[in-house]
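User: quick one, fold this
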Amino acid sequence: MENLWKSILYLAAGRSRIIHVISQAAAISYDSLIISLVIAFVSAAVIAIQVSKQFLMSGAEAYIGGSIAIVMIREIAPGFVALAIGARAGTAISAEIANMQVTSQVDAIKTLKVDPVGFYFAPRILAAAITVPMVVMLAEFVGIIGGMLVSHATIGLHPSRYIHSVWLWLNARDVYISLFKAFIFGTLIALVCATQGYETKGGAKDVGESTTKAAVLSTVFMLIADFLINIVFYL
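Assistant:
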């Protein structure tokens, strides 16, 4: 929390350059966009395969689109996208800062009277907090379309019936909560992974250990945050 507070103060003081934030946004979310969308599409396709025939046999095929949309928006898209970004970009953040730490680049920043926590953490946290929700929005759209295509291919469900079901079940509140989840997940990924990299001491072996620890801890913290958010908004 101390590192997060320092980063917020650094951003509030206007000391973080926009070019650094844009660069980190590209590294964190843009470079993870394709894999995130593929995961969303495949997840929705699997759900559609699992539920379509059961819904059809019970005469409830009109609910397929809404069911898939709710599952994608409430849980699958924000959760899976965050895990993908954490595995790809989060570990890269940890490894990059850890390398700077063991090669004394962080110490060099300190000699210039620059706060290393603010300098290294702030642009990464801001970039992740802004762009992860954007990726999640795209993933939700791709997932819903993927469910529609698979439902049509497996049981012949007409796209118009699928979309009608989505609109009936879709709630703006669920979308807002999913974006809030993505914001929290993005912040946690950048904060936890940067912290693990910053606390690295030693050599190349320790860089690898910090990267592994960052991946594990970011996943654990995201799952805990997901659990708490669901309790607050859905219990």
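User: anything notable?
Assistant: Residues 2-234 form one domain.
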